[in-house]
Amino acid sequence: LAVHEHPSSMAVVVLTALAVVSSVRAQSPPLELRQGDHIVFLGNTMAERLQQFNYFETMLMARFADLDLVVRNLGWSGDTITVQPRPLNFGDAARHLKDQKADVIIAFFGLNESFDGEAGLPAFEKDLDAYLAMHQQTQYSERGTPRVVLVSPIAHERLARLEHYVDQEARNRELA
Predict the structure, then answer these.
(1) pLDDT digits over 110-153, tens only?
(2) How many CB atoms lie within 10 A of CB 154?
(3) How large is the angle between the packed helices 8-24 and 55-63, nearest 10 degrees?
(4) pLDDT: is 160 or 64 the higher one?
(5) Cβ burial 98-123 (10 Å sphere, 16+ → b, else e)
(6) What Rg, from alpha-carbon coordinates, does the chain have?
(7) Alpha helices of the chain — where are they, by DSSP H?
(8) Tally of CB atoms within 10 A around 31
C-alpha cells in the first residue's frame, strides 16, 4: 500500500518497526514504556509525516492509556544524524529534548544518508555510534538517560509509474 494513498499504513510501518527492533539486535532489550514517559520523535521526513498522519501516536496512547504518556514530534524533513538545519535562534536538538524532558527517543534516520550509497556507510555507522553515545551520556529528564529506539527507513515501494525514473531494486539495496 502506498503510504500517501493509505495514511494508516504509516502506523503499521512504525508499529512493525518498533516491534522488530529488539529482535533485530538480540543484545538489545525490548522497549519498556513507563508511567509518565515523555516520548520524542526525532529524524527525517518519516518522523515529520507522523505529525500529519498521527495514527501511531493515537494507537500508542490507546494501547498504553494507563501510563499517561506524553508524546512530542520534533521530526524535520531533510534531517540527518549530523545535519539538522533550523531557522536562526530555533535551538538545537539537545535544548528541545531537555525542554520536552525526553525519556524515550524514537529516532528516524538513515534515509537521507542512504543517498551516499555504500561509500557513505562507514561515516553513517561512525555518526550513529557517536549519536547513540551522546544520548547515553545525556540526561534530558530527572529520570535518567533516555532509551533510544532506532527506526530504519522503509523500502522504496515498487510502483509501475516510477520504474522509468527510479531503479527501485538499486534504491532498496542502498536503503538496506
Answers:
(1) 999 999 989 999 999 999 999 999 999 999 999 999 999 999 99
(2) 18
(3) 60
(4) 64
(5) eebbbbbbbbbbbbbbbeeeeeeeee
(6) 17
(7) 8-24, 45-52, 55-63, 93-99, 111-114, 121-136, 168-175
(8) 16
